[in-house]
Design brief:
single chain, Rossmann fold, 8 helices, about 15% strand, globular, binds NADP nicotinamide-adenine-dinucleotide phosphate
Length: about 260
């Protein structure tokens, strides 16, 4: 993928955070965008901003946990933009509670259906078109998709599930020309803080990480955009993340302690 000019890119979770910044940066590179999220007002605001840089930008209100919404997202993209070059599965929700404290176990299903099944549904409906364009599928996972983190049981499970799914799919698609890029960010400074689901399955409403070291969203998206352009297999962000995954092979308990400390900060 030498450049993004006139590539048709679907971005889920485009109404805020990483998805919003991805939309803006890719519009600046001349991509045609199909933007998806549930919040129509915020999604349209992002679309309007992107239209200042790119001719073809559409916003499609989508709940990725609903199969029919994902099907509609892909169909509308084809009807209006004619092809799909890149699908970025970015929509995601997280949690902040110990497993033993959970009072509403539906929380687990909610997280799995957005982070994991949402990515699977969009990929399923987009795949025939991606094969035609020899395009790329991108999964925005998390370091929590590679190593366990306390207070994040269901979130980690959903991100590990994405890894298993997309690593398998990459092999299946080896001779099809379709690439699969997995992204593993650490803590990124986005609007996700305070939206984490608590023990009762509702958003906690407070930012527990305000004093923690987080990556700026622009820096995170710069890294993602470069990885997509190079059709990289995967990107693990931050030095600690990279070292941690190597260390996990020889001293996994030490990595458990690092994960515990990151949450206790
Ligand atoms: N921020 C971090 O520290 C961090 C670290 C590692 C990985 N990540 C991952 O990066 C991705 C983006 O997170 P972020 O930090 O940018 O969070 P964010 O600012 O909260 O954005 C999340 C996006 O996902 C969308 N979304 C949530 N539920 C959805 C649903 N059912 N259907 C469609 N869209 C949905 C939201 O839009 P609506 O509410 O409008 O639907 C929003 O646009 C997530 O997958 C997250 O797990 C984030």
């Amino acid at each position: 993928m030498k450049n993004f000019k006139d590539k048709v890119i679907i971005i889920t979770g485009a109404s805020s955070g990483i998805g919003r910044e991805l939309s803006i940066q890719l519009s600046e590179k001349g991509a045609q965008l199909s933007l998806a999220a549930r919040n129509e007002i915020k999604l349209n605001e992002v679309a309007e901003k992107c239209k200042m840089n790119s001719n073809n930008v559409i916003a499609i209100t989508t709940d990725v946990s609903k199969k029919e919404d994902c099907k509609n997202l892909i169909e509308q993209t084809i009807n209006k933009l004619g092809k799909i070059d890149i699908l970025i599965n970015n929509a995601g929700i997280t949690m902040w509670t110990l497993f033993e404290d959970i009072t509403n176990i539906d929380l687990v299903e909610k997280i799995m259906s957005v982070n994991y099944l949402g990515s699977v549904y969009c990929t399923h409906f987009a795949l025939p078109y991606l094969k035609r364009s020899k395009g790329s599928i991108v999964g925005i996972s998390s370091l929590t998709g590679r190593t366990g983190v306390p207070t994040r049981t269901a979130y980690a499970a959903s991100k590990f599930a994405m890894t298993g799914f997309f690593d398998s799919l990459r092999i299946e698609l080896k001779n099809s020309g379709v690439g699969v890029t997995m992204i593993y960010p650490g803590f990124v400074n986005t609007e996700i803080r305070g939206k984490e689901l608590g023990a009762d399955g509702e958003q906690i409403g407070v930012n527990n990480l305000k004093d923690a070291k987080t990556m700026d969203v622009k820096t995170c998206v710069n890294i993602i955009v470069k990885a997509i352009a190079k059709r990289k297999r995967e990107v693990v962000m931050t030095l600690i993340g990279k070292l941690g995954l190597k260390l996990k092979l020889i001293a996994p308990s030490l990595v458990d302690n690092i994960a515990q400390k990151a949450i206790n900060k």
